[in-house]
Design a protein that fits this description.
402 residues
Amino acid sequence: MSTFDSLTWAFEDWFDTPLSGLPDTLRQRVEKELAPMAWDSLSADRRRSVALQLDYQHDPATAQDQKFWWDFFERVDDLNNQVAAWEVVATPAAADLALKESRLAELKQQLARMDAQKRLARGDYYPERKPSLTKDGAPLAEPAPAIRYVAYPKAMQQLTARLGATPEELAAWIFYGPKLGGITAYVNANELDPPPRFSYSYFVGTSDYIAPLMACWFKVEDIDQFAPADRYMTGSALIERWGQRPGLKAVAFIQAKIEESRLADIHPIYGGTRGTFSEHADWPPLEAGLFPLAHVLQIEAEDFDGDFEAAGLGKTEVFESVGQPDQAVVGSAEWRSQNAQIAANALHDKPGGSRDKQNQIRTIWASGKYSSRNVCAEQECAGLNMSYDAARKALTNIPDPS
């Protein structure tokens, strides 16, 4: 069993206390473990940040993660050195030039993938330890019961039985994590306490986000209590679904909805697909992406005629947990329409959702900063993470600033 004693938890109630006010045991830890940093010269937030950094360095649960990133940056340095070496290679013949260009393109592509991997890293480490001393001197509570974990096959079986979940959805929930309505996965929970957190950032270079799930473990209570914020369907399923609409070119329509900021494509390993990042030819195709069901249903409610059954699109029964109106018959066109509204409202009304962005750009327009709606949309759309068309549409029929 590890002897790791978290600084973050030990000082949980004491980060805002001067050195002279700390208990002797904590003051000794400051002098021994935080030296040469001067405790009293740091803000409470800075003290917490330093404690987290030191915990990360000493927590056995991060050993795998630390080794991964050490090797990662060693590899980045090696690739950069190879690029520098190839850039000065002489090319007396056409074959030499072709080889040089091919090799440089391959190396730079690897660096681009690794840069994407670095940007996807969460950086949300927090030690799984309890405080060793309370500020009011109260006796420590009895040790909490050991955390129980369940392996992927059993966890997936339970989520499927209770929620109708798919492995692809579980991948999306892990990608987002609990802060965004998802769930946390772990690795080696059968032999490590606490187990390291699973991260898709280790798998950049492959587009298969299901295979890594085979090594995942989950807290039993997380699986029992999990209520997803969003539901998802695969790009291939969405293309098939919308491809049944007469006269609709599904791929082109999906691309159009992405450009309108009404449909998000995610990929647990890369973050997105070529549907959003068309400049990355080596990124996963649209078919491999995952799409929020709320987006899909909202688009169908607004852009289609509403008669989804007539179009042969009766595939949403497994997503009943998104929200079930009391009055409509489950599976009926009315139920689908109401379900779409409930799911979409829940998603778009979130901070940073489409309605929040629309309100923000309308507030900017109302401030009188711009004399033209076109200029307002053009100048502010990037900062609000909107397309120009979506920003300009939000200003349609909005009164001039008073």
